[in-house]
Fold this sequence. Notes:
Number of helices: 1
Radius of gyration: 19 Å
CATH architecture of the largest domain: Sandwich
Oligomer: single chain
CATH topology of the largest domain: Jelly Rolls
Amino acid sequence: MPTTIPTVTSSTRPGSPSAGDAYFETDTKNYIIYDGANWRGYVSDGLSGWSGSNTYSMNFDGTDDYLTGSAVTPTAQQGTISAWIKTTNTGNSVVLSQSDNTVADQCLFLRLQGANAAFGFVTGSTISIKRGSTTINDGNWHHIVWWSDGTNWKIYVDGGDEGTLTSVTGSAQGLWLGDLTSSNNLAIGMRVRNTTDLVYNGNIDEVAIWDSTLSASQITNIYKGESNGGSGGTNGTPGNLLSFSPKAWWRMGDGAEANSGTTIYDMSSFSNNMTIVNATSGTNTAGAVYQADTP
Protein backbone atom coordinates (compact mmCIF):
# COMPACT_ATOMS: atom_id res chain seq x y z
CA MET A 1 0.00 0.00 0.00
CA PRO A 2 1.32 3.51 -0.77
CA THR A 3 2.18 5.76 2.15
CA THR A 4 0.53 9.17 2.26
CA ILE A 5 2.88 12.02 3.19
CA PRO A 6 1.19 14.39 5.68
CA THR A 7 0.60 17.97 4.60
CA VAL A 8 1.52 21.24 6.32
CA THR A 9 2.03 24.85 5.26
CA SER A 10 5.24 26.87 5.56
CA SER A 11 3.82 28.52 8.69
CA THR A 12 2.65 25.30 10.37
CA ARG A 13 5.82 23.19 10.20
CA PRO A 14 6.24 21.06 13.36
CA GLY A 15 8.13 22.88 16.07
CA SER A 16 10.01 19.83 17.39
CA PRO A 17 10.65 17.56 14.39
CA SER A 18 12.76 14.41 14.33
CA ALA A 19 15.39 13.62 11.69
CA GLY A 20 13.72 12.08 8.67
CA ASP A 21 10.31 13.67 9.21
CA ALA A 22 8.81 14.49 5.79
CA TYR A 23 5.85 16.64 4.76
CA PHE A 24 4.30 18.24 1.68
CA GLU A 25 3.81 22.00 1.98
CA THR A 26 0.56 22.95 0.30
CA ASP A 27 1.42 26.65 -0.07
CA THR A 28 4.95 26.27 -1.53
CA LYS A 29 4.24 22.99 -3.39
CA ASN A 30 7.51 21.60 -1.98
CA TYR A 31 8.36 18.40 -0.14
CA ILE A 32 10.32 19.14 3.03
CA ILE A 33 12.48 16.74 5.05
CA TYR A 34 14.08 17.47 8.43
CA ASP A 35 17.78 16.50 8.31
CA GLY A 36 18.28 16.65 12.07
CA ALA A 37 19.26 20.32 12.09
CA ASN A 38 17.33 22.08 9.32
CA TRP A 39 14.41 21.64 6.98
CA ARG A 40 15.43 20.80 3.41
CA GLY A 41 13.10 21.66 0.52
CA TYR A 42 12.60 19.39 -2.50
CA VAL A 43 10.48 19.87 -5.60
CA SER A 44 8.59 16.99 -7.12
CA ASP A 45 11.35 15.98 -9.57
CA GLY A 46 13.70 15.29 -6.67
CA LEU A 47 15.96 18.33 -7.07
CA SER A 48 16.35 20.40 -3.93
CA GLY A 49 16.45 24.16 -3.93
CA TRP A 50 14.20 25.11 -6.81
CA SER A 51 10.43 25.43 -6.60
CA GLY A 52 9.91 26.40 -10.23
CA SER A 53 9.40 30.08 -9.50
CA ASN A 54 10.97 33.12 -7.87
CA THR A 55 8.44 35.03 -5.77
CA TYR A 56 10.40 36.77 -3.00
CA SER A 57 13.52 38.84 -2.47
CA MET A 58 15.05 40.28 0.71
CA ASN A 59 14.58 43.99 1.34
CA PHE A 60 17.24 45.74 3.49
CA ASP A 61 16.41 49.01 5.25
CA GLY A 62 19.83 50.67 4.83
CA THR A 63 20.22 51.24 8.57
CA ASP A 64 21.33 48.18 10.49
CA ASP A 65 20.01 44.90 9.13
CA TYR A 66 22.01 42.25 7.29
CA LEU A 67 22.52 38.51 6.97
CA THR A 68 25.38 36.68 8.65
CA GLY A 69 26.83 33.20 8.30
CA SER A 70 30.00 31.12 8.31
CA ALA A 71 32.83 31.84 5.86
CA VAL A 72 32.43 30.08 2.50
CA THR A 73 35.27 28.29 0.62
CA PRO A 74 37.88 30.27 2.61
CA THR A 75 40.90 28.74 0.84
CA ALA A 76 39.65 29.26 -2.72
CA GLN A 77 42.08 31.21 -4.91
CA GLN A 78 39.48 31.83 -7.61
CA GLY A 79 35.73 31.95 -7.83
CA THR A 80 32.47 33.54 -8.89
CA ILE A 81 29.67 35.26 -6.98
CA SER A 82 26.27 36.00 -8.51
CA ALA A 83 23.41 38.14 -7.19
CA TRP A 84 20.36 40.05 -8.34
CA ILE A 85 20.08 43.55 -6.83
CA LYS A 86 17.68 46.48 -6.96
CA THR A 87 18.53 49.83 -5.37
CA THR A 88 18.43 53.60 -5.73
CA ASN A 89 21.19 54.12 -3.17
CA THR A 90 23.65 56.85 -4.22
CA GLY A 91 26.38 56.16 -1.68
CA ASN A 92 28.78 53.25 -1.28
CA SER A 93 27.24 50.06 0.11
CA VAL A 94 28.12 46.37 0.36
CA VAL A 95 26.16 43.53 -1.22
CA LEU A 96 28.39 40.76 0.22
CA SER A 97 31.54 40.63 2.34
CA GLN A 98 33.76 37.95 3.82
CA SER A 99 36.07 38.95 6.62
CA ASP A 100 37.69 38.39 9.97
CA ASN A 101 35.05 40.09 12.10
CA THR A 102 37.47 40.85 14.93
CA VAL A 103 40.01 43.04 13.06
CA ALA A 104 39.79 46.08 10.79
CA ASP A 105 42.06 45.01 7.96
CA GLN A 106 40.72 41.66 6.68
CA CYS A 107 37.90 41.82 4.15
CA LEU A 108 36.85 41.00 0.61
CA PHE A 109 33.73 42.97 -0.23
CA LEU A 110 31.50 43.18 -3.29
CA ARG A 111 29.80 46.52 -3.38
CA LEU A 112 28.20 49.45 -5.08
CA GLN A 113 30.74 52.21 -5.65
CA GLY A 114 28.23 54.99 -6.14
CA ALA A 115 26.27 53.94 -9.24
CA ASN A 116 28.54 51.04 -10.26
CA ALA A 117 29.36 47.48 -9.20
CA ALA A 118 32.79 47.17 -7.61
CA PHE A 119 35.33 44.90 -5.89
CA GLY A 120 37.04 45.82 -2.65
CA PHE A 121 39.85 43.97 -0.91
CA VAL A 122 41.61 44.88 2.33
CA THR A 123 44.27 42.80 4.02
CA GLY A 124 46.95 44.45 6.10
CA SER A 125 48.39 47.31 4.06
CA THR A 126 46.86 46.08 0.77
CA ILE A 127 43.77 48.09 -0.15
CA SER A 128 42.26 47.85 -3.60
CA ILE A 129 38.89 48.91 -5.01
CA LYS A 130 37.93 48.63 -8.68
CA ARG A 131 34.58 49.39 -10.27
CA GLY A 132 32.66 48.79 -13.49
CA SER A 133 30.93 51.37 -15.65
CA THR A 134 27.23 50.43 -15.94
CA THR A 135 24.75 52.39 -13.83
CA ILE A 136 22.99 49.92 -11.54
CA ASN A 137 21.38 52.19 -8.91
CA ASP A 138 18.48 53.14 -11.18
CA GLY A 139 15.76 51.34 -9.21
CA ASN A 140 15.63 48.43 -11.64
CA TRP A 141 16.69 44.83 -11.12
CA HIS A 142 20.21 43.98 -12.32
CA HIS A 143 22.14 40.72 -12.36
CA ILE A 144 25.70 41.23 -11.07
CA VAL A 145 28.54 38.72 -11.21
CA TRP A 146 31.91 39.24 -9.47
CA TRP A 147 34.63 36.94 -10.87
CA SER A 148 38.30 36.25 -10.14
CA ASP A 149 40.73 33.76 -11.70
CA GLY A 150 43.39 34.56 -9.08
CA THR A 151 45.08 37.08 -11.37
CA ASN A 152 42.30 39.27 -12.75
CA TRP A 153 38.95 40.57 -11.60
CA LYS A 154 35.91 40.75 -13.84
CA ILE A 155 32.45 42.19 -13.29
CA TYR A 156 29.43 41.19 -15.37
CA VAL A 157 26.23 43.26 -15.41
CA ASP A 158 23.08 41.74 -16.94
CA GLY A 159 25.13 39.08 -18.71
CA GLY A 160 27.75 41.44 -20.18
CA ASP A 161 31.43 41.75 -19.23
CA GLU A 162 32.23 45.26 -17.94
CA GLY A 163 35.68 44.99 -19.50
CA THR A 164 38.57 46.97 -18.01
CA LEU A 165 37.69 48.05 -14.49
CA THR A 166 38.41 51.55 -13.20
CA SER A 167 40.79 51.72 -10.25
CA VAL A 168 39.32 53.64 -7.32
CA THR A 169 42.28 52.94 -5.07
CA GLY A 170 45.18 50.48 -5.09
CA SER A 171 46.39 48.35 -7.97
CA ALA A 172 46.02 44.70 -6.92
CA GLN A 173 43.69 42.51 -9.00
CA GLY A 174 42.64 38.90 -8.70
CA LEU A 175 42.74 38.65 -4.90
CA TRP A 176 40.05 36.29 -3.66
CA LEU A 177 38.82 34.52 -0.53
CA GLY A 178 41.95 32.42 -0.12
CA ASP A 179 44.08 35.58 -0.03
CA LEU A 180 42.53 36.63 3.26
CA THR A 181 44.89 35.58 6.04
CA SER A 182 41.86 35.00 8.25
CA SER A 183 38.11 34.91 7.62
CA ASN A 184 35.35 33.81 9.95
CA ASN A 185 32.26 35.65 8.77
CA LEU A 186 30.17 36.04 5.64
CA ALA A 187 27.68 38.89 5.49
CA ILE A 188 25.09 40.07 2.97
CA GLY A 189 23.82 43.65 3.08
CA MET A 190 26.68 45.14 5.09
CA ARG A 191 30.45 44.99 5.58
CA VAL A 192 31.19 43.26 8.89
CA ARG A 193 34.69 43.44 10.39
CA ASN A 194 35.47 44.65 13.91
CA THR A 195 32.72 47.14 13.14
CA THR A 196 29.83 47.30 10.69
CA ASP A 197 29.54 49.81 7.86
CA LEU A 198 28.56 50.34 4.22
CA VAL A 199 24.98 49.19 4.81
CA TYR A 200 22.88 48.27 1.79
CA ASN A 201 19.49 49.84 1.08
CA GLY A 202 17.30 47.95 -1.38
CA ASN A 203 16.55 44.40 -2.52
CA ILE A 204 18.90 41.43 -2.95
CA ASP A 205 17.88 38.09 -4.43
CA GLU A 206 19.30 34.70 -5.50
CA VAL A 207 22.88 35.03 -4.14
CA ALA A 208 25.23 32.18 -5.12
CA ILE A 209 28.94 31.43 -4.68
CA TRP A 210 31.32 29.14 -6.60
CA ASP A 211 34.97 28.32 -5.88
CA SER A 212 35.58 28.15 -9.63
CA THR A 213 35.49 30.63 -12.50
CA LEU A 214 32.29 30.30 -14.47
CA SER A 215 32.61 30.83 -18.22
CA ALA A 216 31.06 33.81 -20.00
CA SER A 217 28.43 31.52 -21.52
CA GLN A 218 27.55 30.09 -18.09
CA ILE A 219 27.13 33.61 -16.71
CA THR A 220 24.88 34.49 -19.65
CA ASN A 221 22.86 31.33 -18.98
CA ILE A 222 22.39 32.32 -15.34
CA TYR A 223 21.25 35.80 -16.37
CA LYS A 224 18.73 34.30 -18.81
CA GLY A 225 17.43 31.79 -16.30
CA GLU A 226 18.76 28.80 -18.23
CA SER A 227 20.39 25.62 -17.00
CA ASN A 228 24.10 25.00 -17.50
CA GLY A 229 24.70 24.53 -21.22
CA GLY A 230 21.28 25.83 -22.18
CA SER A 231 20.41 28.05 -25.12
CA GLY A 232 17.67 30.59 -25.67
CA GLY A 233 15.99 31.62 -22.45
CA THR A 234 14.51 34.89 -21.26
CA ASN A 235 16.76 37.78 -20.28
CA GLY A 236 16.39 38.91 -16.71
CA THR A 237 14.67 35.82 -15.34
CA PRO A 238 16.35 33.97 -12.42
CA GLY A 239 16.39 30.21 -12.82
CA ASN A 240 17.48 26.96 -11.24
CA LEU A 241 21.19 27.13 -10.34
CA LEU A 242 21.60 23.50 -9.27
CA SER A 243 23.06 22.40 -12.63
CA PHE A 244 25.90 24.92 -12.06
CA SER A 245 26.84 23.21 -8.73
CA PRO A 246 27.19 26.28 -6.49
CA LYS A 247 28.98 26.12 -3.12
CA ALA A 248 26.18 28.24 -1.66
CA TRP A 249 22.80 29.47 -2.90
CA TRP A 250 20.49 31.70 -0.86
CA ARG A 251 17.08 32.26 -2.43
CA MET A 252 15.97 35.08 -0.09
CA GLY A 253 12.50 33.79 0.71
CA ASP A 254 12.00 31.11 -1.94
CA GLY A 255 14.19 28.49 -0.25
CA ALA A 256 13.28 26.21 2.61
CA GLU A 257 12.55 29.33 4.71
CA ALA A 258 9.41 29.84 2.53
CA ASN A 259 9.29 33.59 3.28
CA SER A 260 9.10 33.04 7.03
CA GLY A 261 11.47 33.23 10.00
CA THR A 262 15.01 34.59 10.44
CA THR A 263 16.98 31.76 8.77
CA ILE A 264 17.88 31.98 5.08
CA TYR A 265 18.60 28.42 4.00
CA ASP A 266 21.48 27.48 1.71
CA MET A 267 19.78 25.57 -1.10
CA SER A 268 23.02 24.06 -2.41
CA SER A 269 24.21 20.77 -0.94
CA PHE A 270 26.54 22.50 1.55
CA SER A 271 23.96 23.75 4.08
CA ASN A 272 25.65 27.06 4.95
CA ASN A 273 22.55 28.78 6.29
CA MET A 274 22.47 32.49 7.13
CA THR A 275 20.68 34.42 9.87
CA ILE A 276 18.89 37.76 9.59
CA VAL A 277 20.39 40.26 12.08
CA ASN A 278 18.33 43.19 13.41
CA ALA A 279 15.23 41.86 11.71
CA THR A 280 12.89 44.08 13.75
CA SER A 281 14.85 47.28 14.33
CA GLY A 282 16.11 50.27 12.39
CA THR A 283 14.12 52.83 10.44
CA ASN A 284 12.23 50.00 8.78
CA THR A 285 10.45 48.52 11.81
CA ALA A 286 10.30 45.17 10.06
CA GLY A 287 14.06 45.23 9.42
CA ALA A 288 15.20 42.96 6.59
CA VAL A 289 11.93 41.62 5.23
CA TYR A 290 10.74 39.18 2.60
CA GLN A 291 9.19 41.16 -0.21
CA ALA A 292 7.17 40.02 -3.21
CA ASP A 293 9.41 41.98 -5.58
CA THR A 294 11.70 39.99 -7.87
CA PRO A 295 13.40 40.22 -11.25
